[in-house]
Amino acid sequence: MTDQSPAPAVMEFLLNRRSRPAKLLQAPAPDRAALTPILIAAARTPDHGKLVPWRFVVLETAALRRLGDLVASCGTASGRTDEDIAKARACYDSSPLAVVVIEAPKPSDKIPEIEQTYSAGAVCLALLNAALASGWGANWLTGWPVFDRHFVEAGLGLNASERVAGIIHIGTAETAPPDRPRPDLAEITTWMDA
Q1: Which residues are annotated as a binding site?
Q2: How sure is the predictor about 179, in pLDDT bands with cuts at 50, 70 and 90?
Q3: The pTM is what?
Q4: What dotted CATH number matches 24-172?
Q5: Start and end of every Nitroreductase domain (predicted)?
Q6: Which residues are annotated as a binding site for FMN?
């Protein structure tokens, strides 16, 4: 028999969870031992066909700074403004730790690639929530660099069929941000009983 008991503490967390702005995250960040259960929790994401169409790249301090330099060179090469480059670079230069969720689709006659994409997105949310539930500040970001093929291939080691689903920045947040407006449930929900 499976355990289907209510978990009110988990529901309370989900009803009140808030990301922490990446620009406000600082050291310390989780070390490898503290990050491992967060990654394990994220990897428990629904995965139709058990294809595991995603993987993780953990960016520690030196890697983040190297990628900040690569953001600058890719931005210059693609004609980005100094402001665009500085904003994108700041995410790498100031982050204490980040986990990149790589969408890595697998060939399948039964599982459409879009379902694999959804699974990779679900991993991002699971990773974000696991980090927050573990007491860390966390934020899910992307930005123009993750759509630059040179950046993702040279900087993150992606192959031609892979792409970044999200980058989860993790660190210490000194303060909680104010809650933001949430969708009106009545406007986004249709109930069907027949």
Answers
A1: 17-19, 44, 48, 140-142
A2: confident
A3: 0.94
A4: 3.40.109.10
A5: 16-171
A6: 17-19, 44, 48, 140-142
